[in-house]
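Hi D.,

Good news: the full-assembly prediction came through. Inputs first.
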Amino acid sequence: MVRGRVIALSVTDVRFPTSSDQHGSDAMHTDPDYSAAYVVIETDATDGLKGYGLTFTLGKGTEVVVCAVKALAVHIVDREFEEIVGDFRRFYRQLTSDGQLRWIGPEKGVVHLATAAILNAVWDLWAKQEGKPLWKLLVDMDPQKLLSCIDFRYITDALTEEEAYDMLKHGKLGQKEREEQMLKNGYPAYTTSCAWLGYSDQQLKELCVKALKDGWTRFKVKVGADLPDDIRRCKLVREMIGPDNLLMLDANQRWDVQEAIDWVSKLAEFKPLWIEEPTSPDDILGHATISKALAPLGIGIATGEQCHNRVMFKQFLQAKALHYLQIDSCRLGSVNENLSVLLMAKKFQIPVCPHAGGVGLCELVQHLILFDYISVSASLENRMCEYVDHLHEHFKYPVTIKKAAYMPPQVFRAGCWIFN
Amino acid sequence: MVRGRVIALSVTDVRFPTSSDQHGSDAMHTDPDYSAAYVVIETDATDGLKGYGLTFTLGKGTEVVVCAVKALAVHIVDREFEEIVGDFRRFYRQLTSDGQLRWIGPEKGVVHLATAAILNAVWDLWAKQEGKPLWKLLVDMDPQKLLSCIDFRYITDALTEEEAYDMLKHGKLGQKEREEQMLKNGYPAYTTSCAWLGYSDQQLKELCVKALKDGWTRFKVKVGADLPDDIRRCKLVREMIGPDNLLMLDANQRWDVQEAIDWVSKLAEFKPLWIEEPTSPDDILGHATISKALAPLGIGIATGEQCHNRVMFKQFLQAKALHYLQIDSCRLGSVNENLSVLLMAKKFQIPVCPHAGGVGLCELVQHLILFDYISVSASLENRMCEYVDHLHEHFKYPVTIKKAAYMPPQVFRAGCWIFN
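Then the structure:
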């Protein structure tokens, strides 16, 4: 089915002025302009299909990612598409292990974001060529073929290819029923739209009222800039949503280790399910310390949106440093690397609760979490996918949310995400 | 003394075709073209002094770092120089915590390399304005002033500002004698020039003979591509240098955890002091596992040249994952971040053995290691600085090596590094 030779890759710097209304504002990112490096690949096949991929950015620096995409393009242009996805592990490693480019990574920061944008476009085109939405391409894929997309380098001490194969094989049991369940009810979501840090109390209240009316039962609040302010806002949101709905907190890396423990302890009375990104995204051992200290308060640790590769996730799992694993569809090396993380999470029995929002992240990550449920985790316990209500109007096929759940995209030939 | 307003920052993409002769070749970087993003800052002061800084790259991708430097330039151009170095911690955090740019890092990969290039130029200019080589500026600096250059964010669970102050205060004892000792004997070095992976056995032999004649007693060999090949090369070098000289091995991240243990065990008979970068630079816990397994063989772990920030170094130290800490002058956020790592290494009693080579790394890092000995560690036990004999001819003030030791640069008004 796979066809064509890649004849062109183009990349665009797309920016939205979200900072003007404080959408997306948090303790460390006070003025984000949601943006993307947006990649389109074309082949010489006569079907006219193109692959669209993006990586999410916050405004300034998008041009740096665009520059990195151009540097990596040499690895994809003029290649048979069959050669790329037919030995996808090899192609993944070519992008991530280029003997010169890896020095400015490796597998982290700008080059890895660029890698994600390119690979997201490859997966989009592959799904379109197969005439399926991406989640369905993954769900239908033979375990051996799925494994051939994953680079196991540096993670074999936590997950071998053989273990991964057994998991995927086991995941085939009951797959059909779970797929039908997803098509009927969708995948549970939570909302971050109500409580950005820059919003006024009045805005918070109004947004909570509206969200409750729309059926939302899980709410995330940004914290970390000012403790009295956090106490007031958490109290307000808890009052608005009542004692039975879920409340999550997100500090966006604001604290040092001890500071995180002290601060979050003072918010424990509002019964948060988790504290997200309490400290540096690189601080595995710090997260483990915080996790241990907050466990008696019943507060879990969530992190991952800035966890830069599978080697870091491996260690977060090994060190028992998180309770909720938040994959990102653009921070990691696209579907390929996310597959390895989903499988490691399954092995360590940690629920995956993806990061979304920004621009295009909801559109992207829904495919991964649908696959995770249908073919890997087979569980909805303690699981939910983030949802943020911004910028969907710019997509040709925006996500569909019904009763606070992601409804699986079913558009024939729309792999995933396309700007209007 | 500090003066002027920064009126311009320029950045150049400088490349050397080192790959043509396999200089610098290792198991993961088979064809490096030693390159740099080279920054020059100018002020409106009438002294005509400029600040020169660089970050090292391997060829492709230098243009991406150049792009990132341009994105960061907004933070320095039009600023009073006194405002920059007068509250250097604040300036450091401005560069590394830009609310939009930090998304594509934070403090890692391309943006952090760009940060290093800019800050290296700032330190160069500062040293020149003070009329001292950089190491001397640092050695003479008041402990409180030194601390004000360091961002302690995310490391206070391992090192508080108070502890750091006490260390620096204590480091003043005997400082004068150590400075005189350095001026007389220099800082001990080891050579990596003899055994790049792409060199033939004949080349290896000839280079060993020459190095021994020049007084070298410590030698590093690249390994990791092929085990029989490694055994042959290690045997050859050990025979050439004899049983009493030091042999170090460097795998440049080639292996998975168990693979590293198995492979290095088979090289133990050649009595290497350390194995460098056995696996992913991100794998703290993996290094700890390898360290534990190789300890009975008397082989230590060295790593750091791709350790991307102080948070990672903190954890390597906390997890007892390394025995030799290899700072890099361009991978970390310049002198500022390296100061925090030198102090953490002192606290954890781990010797610092800097990474050098490439282009300009020897010229840069000599200042840091001289400061480390004179003002922090006060010890030469198990310590040595890497030296590689390439591309020094392109510098106006290249390093001076005498009897396998770095001689402290003393050029008045030459802070550190200037291309011809």
